[in-house]
Amino acid sequence: MGPWREESKLLRQTVMWCSLVRLRQAAMHAGGSRGNREREREEASRERGSREAAFTYAITAAGVAHAITAACSQGNLSQCGCDREKQGYYNQEEGWKWGGCSADIKYGVEFSRRFVDAREIKKTTRRLMNLHNNEAGRKVLEERMKLECKCHGVSGSCTTKTCWTTLPKFREIGYILKDKYNEAVHVEVVRASRLRQPTFLKVKKTQGFRKPMETDLVYIERSPNYCEEDAATGSVGTQGRLCNRTSPHTDGCDLMCCGRGYNTHQYTKVWQCNCKFQWCCFVKCNTCSERTEVFTCK
């Protein structure tokens, strides 16, 4: 298989992987979800410049960078490998040097920029928002790179150390971006050019032109109310949804039902149990039953 076909195959695998990551991470980590999370948030990400969109773009960009960097370290790509810049002594006084295979995060991040950012062509406010959130996701990943070391010396002493950089678990990035989602910054566009095209984003309702931080997630439209049915935004609301009475998380009745309370439904489940083979030739079973309660939002 030629290098181009090899790269194309890995690229397709990466895109599929990142699509799965985006959906799973959005469902798992984007806190406060009370509606039909997979469908509603995906719709929000495509149609609205909301904080859900910010999370989706950030975690997708980080996911591509993470996947490509991992593929490089594992030798699955012919165009990259270990980070060649991390060689020799890093700090002579501390007595450690680069060794092993350091993850080439720079290559992964640059690949993510070329691949993920390429679709942002139109010069619109949404383009600025998307590009900022893409970069924020990659920046969070870069800042969470880990340094691992191994000691060398007689009888277990640590005369010298060999160190290398490794990728964090992607779940860790998901949790960080969840926090960023909860603290997302509302921004507005500044049109500084003579053509009045969107030039940069600034924090909304602040004096001057204070820009958001590099790792802030930003949004330009407020999220719809997922508690109530709204045909315009695609929200199906939470009325009638199953909830967990004892859970303190987003599946719990307190959060899922948005303070409206819940209904309790009781039913009896009946099934055959304790089945035994009788000679000859039939199976005799007892009838077992269990009383169960389920809870739905009012």
Automatic annotation (TrEMBL):
Subcellular location: Secreted, Extracellular space, Extracellular matrix
Chain intervals with Basic and acidic residues compositional bias: 35-49
Domain of life: Eukaryota
GO cellular component, one term: extracellular space
GO molecular function: cytokine activity; frizzled binding
Region (Disordered) location: 29-49
Main location: secreted
Region forming the signal peptide: none
Keywords: Developmental protein, Disulfide bond, Extracellular matrix, Glycoprotein, Lipoprotein, Secreted, Wnt signaling pathway
InterPro entries, per the entry: Wnt, Wnt7, Wnt_C, Wnt_CS
Biological process, per Gene Ontology: animal organ development; canonical Wnt signaling pathway; cell fate commitment; neuron differentiation; positive regulation of JNK cascade; tissue development
Reported function: Ligand for members of the frizzled family of seven transmembrane receptors that functions in the canonical Wnt/beta-catenin signaling pathway. Required for normal fusion of the chorion and the allantois during placenta development. Required for central nervous system (CNS) angiogenesis and blood-brain barrier regulation.
Similarity comment: Belongs to the Wnt family.
Official protein name in the record: Protein Wnt
Record organism: Hucho hucho
